[in-house]
């Protein structure tokens, strides 16, 4: 006995808001990508696929894409590994462990701007705590201009991204670990398996769904990073940390090439959609039952 | 035995990695500039409240705070109301209509705010909503709709359909079923969704940055970006800004830890 008229009224306000201020604007973005609009003047001309061609052949765009991939791979590998290790160490529910979980999770609730500012200081070559600590410890030779050196800047920021979100992913792994029935562990131990064997034959295979979730989330999250890089280096030095999102921002609001920036964001969206699709496939394939 | 100590060492090192930067922010906020440069690690000596008390008269801090509060609470309230109604209707309607509406919102999950920023920027300028907190609230609510509808629909699917059906047989209107049965039963999921949205909106940089320009309208993350320029040599002051921005979230986190974890994991996993 559903009252469909009443239910339609439930849908209406939200749908209107969503379509008017999200769906429709996003579609106009596609429209702008075929124009030479500068974002301010009232007139513009259609340029067909020129913006797409210009984007794909632009050196900065290619550099940004390369940086995106580098940043993403670094974060995914480091974050998955670190959050898994932490989860394995904190899976049992003792008071200390629960407190540590909360501590490790804490950075995830800070704004990227705050995290960026904190770490910009930690990394500062002259007054930063990292170089200060290294000097104090007699390891001054490792001291570095962490986000000012184009060779390592992107990795320095990747480390901050991991610092902020590894604890959050640890929680996903812990949930996965706690979902594994205890009998399976007992059975494996009864069979005389060593710790490593138990991990390899019981824990790891049954943890696959959680691992897929973590990898999927981290991949997408790091691919569309923006705030942290914007706050810490704004794409510099010399485009060393420019990624696609900062490229889009700079193209639109720095050089007033709104049409070109729109084409860039459409390419970015397609790449992101492909990644998401791959992840969904992986998620489906990795369902295990026990 | 060795392994056990090794495990503890890992946990300790990681704990320090989290604590040291946060400790640094905390102590710097109570240091004088000279003390900050001489001994960055040490406990503040002399201990000073000047950064904290100086910040409020020097900056329209209360204003920034108020703006962030209004935008966050406004967005979350609208979002929860509209999204829970949609989620209820999706689950209750079911069938292909439910599927289509759900799919329409899920499709939005793929589009990140970095892609919609350009069209949103030009649309809000055309509408004359630039520099308006109300405009920002409405736009933020629209942009977060995919993730909140996704989360709440997931939660509402767990409701017992028979109870709703029985209530409906007794002649209860959908509004009554929604307010008397669905919402109370979904309360923990609403709380988790709300905390997730609180964090997202309180910390958001991009959308406020595109829409707000005058100093009296800034939210805290925007104010922080501005401090970076203004306090380019006064680091203790800038780090005090970081502390002030983080305190409300940290207090909430301590009070509502359970919901933070549930919300941030459930939301982010599909975000």
Summary?
The complex is a heterodimer of chains A (290) and B (271). Chain A is mainly α and 290 residues long. Chain A is built from twelve helices and no strands.
End-to-end CA span of chain A: 38 Å
What is the number of beta strands of chain B? 0
Computed over alpha carbons, the radius of gyration of chain A is: 24 Å
Poorly predicted parts of chain A = none
Overall mean pLDDT of chain A stands at 89
Radius of gyration of chain B: 23 Å
Order of helices and strands of chain A: HHHHHHHHHHHH
Distance between the termini of chain B: 42 Å
Oligomer: heterodimer
Approximate shape of chain A: globular
**Number of continuous helical runs of chain A:** 12
Helix percent band of chain A = over 70%
Shape of chain B: globular
- Biggest protein-protein interface? A-B, 82 and 84 residues
Strand content of chain A: under 5%
% residues in beta strands of chain B: under 5%
Write the layout of secondary structure elements.
The complex is a heterodimer of chains A (290) and B (271).
Chain A: H1 4-32, H2 50-57, H3 59-90, H4 95-105, H5 112-123, H6 129-136, H7 153-178, H8 182-190, H9 195-223, H10 227-232, H11 244-254, H12 258-285
Helix pairs in contact in A: 2-12, 3-7, 3-9, 4-7, 7-9, 8-9, 9-12, 11-12
Chain B: H1 2-28, H2 33-38, H3 50-58, H4 61-93, H5 95-107, H6 113-127, H7 133-156, H8 161-169, H9 174-185, H10 187-203, H11 206-211, H12 220-230, H13 235-255, H14 257-270
Helix pairs in contact in B: 4-5, 4-7, 4-10, 5-7, 7-10, 8-9, 10-14, 12-13
Structural account:
The complex is a heterodimer of chains A (290) and B (271). Chain A has 290 residues and is mostly helical. Helices cover 72% and strands 0% of the residues of chain A. The longest helix of chain A is centred in the N-terminal third of the chain and has 32 residues, at 59-90. Chain A is globular and about 75 Å long. The model of chain A has no long low-confidence stretch (mean pLDDT 89). Chain B has 271 residues and is mainly α. In chain B, α4 (61-93) packs parallel to α7 (133-156) and α4 crosses α10. Chain B has 14 helices and no strands. Chain B has helices at 2-28, 33-38, 50-58, 61-93, 95-107, 113-127, 133-156, 161-169, 174-185, 187-203, 206-211, 220-230, 235-255, 257-270. The two termini of chain B are 42 Å apart. Helices cover 80% and strands 0% of the residues of chain B. Classes of the chains: A mainly alpha (290), B mainly alpha (271). At the A-B interface, α1, α3, α4, α5 and α7 of A face α1, α4, α5, α6 and α7 of B.
